[in-house]
Amino acid sequence: MKRFLPVLLLVPLLLAACGDDGSGADADSGVRGVVLLGPQCPVVQEASPCPDEPMPGVEVRALRDGSVVGRDRTDAVGRFEIALAPGTYVLQAIVGTDGPPPTAKPVNAIVLEGSFTDVTVPVDSGIR
């Protein structure tokens, strides 16, 4: 019996790992989008546009009822994708502390069954 004790202890852990955590990781729904940093110029003029720039390497978290249920890191052009079950989520780009810019505000997203919701997560550069 002592030889089987470690195996018996591992079985519940393995079964829990196989269970559905509600994240929708195997789902055909979720969010996809881009994290953009802006403004890039102190004064934007029509003749001299100054578009926001994508932010590579930023962690984006999907929260549901205050808990992180999914995450991804932006690619070289600031894009991310998180598979999620249908529902309402808050997306948050993690760009640092609550100190000086850049700062990101949470973005609400509604995920529908069988589709991905497109989202732009803005990050304030602090340029004025």
Could you please describe the fold and organization of this structure?
The protein has 128 residues and is mainly beta. It has one domain: Immunoglobulins (Immunoglobulin-like). 11% of the residues lie in helices and 41% in strands. The strands form two sheets. Strands 1, 2, 5, 7 and 9 form a five-stranded mixed β-sheet that branches. The termini are far apart. 20% of the residues are buried. Residues 4-24 have low confidence and may be disordered.
Total beta-strand segments: 9
| First-last Cα distance | 71 Å
Strand content: 35-45%
Enumerate the spans where pLDDT stays under 50 for 5 or more consecutive residues: 4-24
**Tally of helical runs:** 1
Number of domains: 1
Outline type: globular
Mean pLDDT rating:
82
CATH homologous superfamily name? Immunoglobulins
Instruction: Using the CA coordinates, give the radius of gyration.
Output: 20 Å
CATH topology: Immunoglobulin-like
Broad CATH class:
Mainly Beta
Please describe the biggest sheet, giving its number of strands, its sense, and whether it closes into a barrel. 5 strands, mixed
SS-based structural class? Answer: mainly beta
Report helical residue fraction.
10-25%
- The SSE string, one letter per element, is HEEEEEEEEE
Tell me which CATH architecture applies here. Answer: Sandwich
Topology (elements, then pairings):
Layout: H1 5-18, E1 30-38, E2 53-54, E3 59-64, E4 67-73, E5 79-83, E6 87-94, E7 103-104, E8 107-111, E9 116-124
Parallel strand pairs: 1-9
Antiparallel strand pairs: 1-2, 1-5, 3-4, 3-6, 6-8, 7-9
